[in-house]
Amino acid sequence: MKNxxxxxxxxxxxxxxxxxAQANSTSVTEDFKPSTVNQPGQEYPQVNSQGYARFQIVAxxxxxxxxxxxxxxxxxxxxxxxxxxxxxxxxxxxxxDEGFHYYHVTIDGGVFNDxxxxxxxxxxxxxxxxxIPAHDKDFYALKDVAHxxxxxxLFPSKSTxxxxxxxxxxxxxxxxxxxxxxxxxxxxxxxGEDETAWSNxxxxxxxxxxxxxxxxxxxxxxxxxxxxxxxxxxxxxxSFRIEPFxxxxxxxxxxxxxxxxxxxxxxxxxxMAGLSMGGMETHTIxxxxxxxxSHYALLSGGIYKPEEIKDKSKVKLIFISCGSRENPEKVxxxxxxxxxxxYNAVAYISENTAHEFLTWRRSFKEMAPLLFK
Amino acid sequence: MKNxxxxxxxxxxxxxxxxxAQANSTSVTEDFKPSTVNQPGQEYPQVNSQGYARFQIVAxxxxxxxxxxxxxxxxxxxxxxxxxxxxxxxxxxxxxDEGFHYYHVTIDGGVFNDxxxxxxxxxxxxxxxxxIPAHDKDFYALKDVAHxxxxxxLFPSKSTxxxxxxxxxxxxxxxxxxxxxxxxxxxxxxxGEDETAWSNxxxxxxxxxxxxxxxxxxxxxxxxxxxxxxxxxxxxxxSFRIEPFxxxxxxxxxxxxxxxxxxxxxxxxxxMAGLSMGGMETHTIxxxxxxxxSHYALLSGGIYKPEEIKDKSKVKLIFISCGSRENPEKVxxxxxxxxxxxYNAVAYISENTAHEFLTWRRSFKEMAPLLFK
Lengths: 373, 373
Known about the structure:
- By secondary structure, chain A is of the alpha+beta class.
- Chain A has 2 domains: 132 residues, Immunoglobulins (Immunoglobulin-like, Sandwich), CATH 2.60.40; 232 residues, Alpha/Beta hydrolase fold, catalytic domain (Rossmann fold, 3-Layer(aba) Sandwich), CATH 3.40.50.1820.
- The first copy, chain A, is 23% helix and 27% strand.
- Chain A is globular, with a radius of gyration of 21 Å.
- Chain A starts with a helix and ends in a 6-residue tail after the last helix.
């Protein structure tokens, strides 16, 4: 329990000050364009080439409209001002970090989403999202290459007495070559997110399609499911226990996947990876179940120590990453320790990012070529 | 063009007055429960056993909060009142129609979603949704049966110079029996909706799973894609032309499906169906392409006249439906005319529903057993 609370607090603290690439007083370049994750046809929010975000909210009779992103406002947000046309307008006081950010709008004391933006499940609710184009965004772009599919499955879970949802990425060609079998990565989201996060926010399917098209990886299947079972108080950490989720994952989901998809159904063909809380889950479950997974990856989600691992011969890869604005020294040091102890361990630090999805998109791209070699 | 505008207007008029099962002054039963399509853990909106809906919105400094559902308020909505705890509260003045309804909240003149409800793509935006439990809701319930998958595909479209998205329902067992081939229904959404509607609002995957589990239908594949190509002004009807969508559907999507899924790739194994605007599209495209589809279905989406059809021998089924609060006489009369002309035509009227998703869920359930016999 303690570890989870610590990392959660750590994330919140990091996110609260680090989402600005520059806090500055340079002039704002007037080349704003609609964010790429706006709702269809919506002009706002917009982003400029410097990474500033500009918002417009229609609420003519409101007293106060504050966007939760950006410096300079109440609670670290951007205070919008009502213009003569009755529309509330405002621009962040500085450039945002490249990549994806969650946000919401506080209107007269109530928390709502921006009607212009698409919603993404984070903080245990569907929140507005905005995308600041990254200089390396090409690796997760939708390109004219063969595409894999992301499919929703509903698998039976006796332990929770329901059908649970997971999303399964199958690589291009999966449906055509009916004899080929694939290794599988079980990939977990972070706290407050759910099984939609890695596709919607992470674009993991597009990252895979692009890596496969470039011949950089051997294709594998990815399985993403909800990492909590305490549905009474959804997303609550206080009552979180790993065992019920471990049962769902190892005793229910994995057998279902192995019997319904063309998998390499062995320890050698199975990886577990997760971001933030999903990394903590990966850490615990891989250590508990050394005969189930052979490749482990923690993305902004803690570290492994050599003394935690019972049988070194069963671990084929340990990948540990975080953003440069998180705790890179800790990641580097842990990986050095693992290497010194004889493990195949790899560290990756995402430059100029914090506890956010660009860190995890990049981490996944770095990790994927190392798996199942 | 004219037909589309007429049906759109017709839908709006119908929806504006017909979503109440009873406008009344009976006493309200205090057995409210959270709507089944609330966001995880959210207590409001709620619905009682009579079909009344109750809303709570936190916006302590707001001047005015109006929910777009229910009689008695401005523009036909429910005016909420601020209670002593600063929360805006209100209950519809009457019982709502059974089934799914879109809505939004107007706060100080701005249009937002209810933070308690899940969002569904309708009216060209992600809107709040609420579910009034229907007396026959069992047929679209999540049950302990074998489940098919709904998978997102990205298919190449040269005519629109992009990868377009579709969702494909494959029935239970699709992944196991690697030799079986299935017929396919191309199923279209209505105006303002998109390719997510039939799964999210329609629960078409669960309807299929349940019908298959009961042995009532022969399993088939369902393909759902976005029915418009005029992305400049998304969802705009003024610039709508059927030809670009027909090209995407017939020349690009169908060949992709036939080469990537185990389909019966013949006219006899292919149906087209659609609701509202999707029905108008079905009408036009099936008449234009008699060698592509053999089964036609219009759900609250117009009718066929015998004189429109060039070759009667190519049409295996015409299914036409609507809600009893729409224009059932027109549907019955059209089907009688088709039967008299020697067609295998079937009419279905959904009792006590209007131009809304319960009509279409029920229509799909009635239609499915008639296909590919």
